[in-house]
Amino acid sequence: DVKVTQSSRYLVKRTGEKVFLECVQDMDHENMFWYRQDPGLGLRLIYFSYDVKMKEKGDIPEGYSVSREKKERFSLILESASTNQTSMYLCASSFWDRSYNEQFFGPGTRLTVL
Amino acid sequence: KNEVEQSPQNLTAQEGEFITINCSYSVGISALHWLQQHPGGGIVSLFMLSSGKKKHGRLIATINIQEKHSSLHITASHPRDSAVYICAVMDSNYQLIWGAGTKLIIKP
C-alpha cells in the first residue's frame, strides 16, 4: 500500500512563528507536491519537487519555502506565519512518469495561525 | 474564469438515488482525474481517463473530449459515498489543474 504521511493532522501557531510541515512517502516516488486547499478554491499548488534538492514553484509560492534533502521527505516551511496562511495543507507524491501522473495524497494538516 | 469548472458545488440526495457530478474544462488535456476526499482530509484517486468510459463498482466516469466535459456517476448511492469529489485535468505541460470540488451528502 502506498503511504504518504504528514507530521501533524492539526496545528495551531501564532503570527510570526516559523512553521515546519513534514511529509514522508514510502513508495520511492520521484515527485512530491505541497498544496493548500481553501473552501471554494480547490487545491492550489505551492511547490513541487521532482528530485532530491530540486524544487519548482507552483501557483502560490509566496510566503513559503521547501526542502528536499532525502527522496522520501519533503518539507514545507512558513518562515513567518500569517493569518492568511490558515488552511488545509496536503502533501502528495507520484512517480516520474508524467504520462501517468497519479498522485497519492497524505491525510492533510489543518493549520490555524492566530 | 476557472479552467476547470465543477457542478453542482453542493449536492444532497437520498440513499439509493443516481448521482451525477459534472466537470467542464477549457484547456487541452492529456488526461482527466476524478478523486474523492472524505471528511478528515484524505484524498484518493478514483479514475484517470483520457477517452470513453470507466467503471469501478458503483462508480462510472465518462469523458467527451470534443465537448471538454466529464461526468462522474454513482449508482445506488449510499451514505458512505458522502464526500467531496474533485475533478482535475492534466494539461499539455503535464500540469494538474484542479476543480473546486463538489460536496456530496447522501442521507439515509
Descriptive notes:
The complex is a heterodimer of chains A (114) and B (108). With 114 residues, chain A is mainly β. Helix content of chain A is 0%, strand content 52%. Chain A is globular, with a radius of gyration of 13 Å. The N and C termini of chain A lie far apart (37 Å). In chain B, a hairpin with a 5-residue loop joins strand 4 and strand 5. Chain B has 108 residues and is mainly beta. Chain B starts with a strand and ends with a strand. In chain B, strands 2, 4, 5, 9, 10 and 11 form a six-stranded mixed sheet that branches. Classes of the chains: A mainly beta (114), B mainly beta (108).
SSE map:
The complex is a heterodimer of chains A (114) and B (108).
Chain A: E1 4-6, E2 10-13, E3 19-25, E4 31-38, E5 42-49, E6 56-57, E7 65-70, E8 73-78, E9 87-94, E10 104-105, E11 109-113
Parallel strand pairs in A: 2-11
Antiparallel strand pairs in A: 1-3, 3-8, 4-5, 4-9, 5-6, 7-8, 9-10, 9-11
Chain B: E1 4-7, E2 10-14, E3 19-25, E4 29-37, E5 43-49, E6 52-56, E7 59-64, E8 69-74, E9 83-91, E10 96-98, E11 102-107
Parallel strand pairs in B: 2-11
Antiparallel strand pairs in B: 1-3, 3-8, 4-5, 4-9, 6-7, 7-8, 9-10, 9-11
Q: What is the succession of H and E elements of chain A?
A: EEEEEEEEEEE
**pLDDT averaged residue by residue of chain B:** 92
Our Rg estimate of chain B from Cα atoms comes to: 13 Å
Instruction: Spell the H/E element sequence of chain B.
Output: EEEEEEEEEEE
Biggest interface, and residues per chain? A-B, 22 and 21 residues
Summarize the structure.
The complex is a heterodimer of chains A (114) and B (108). By secondary structure, chain A is an all-beta fold.
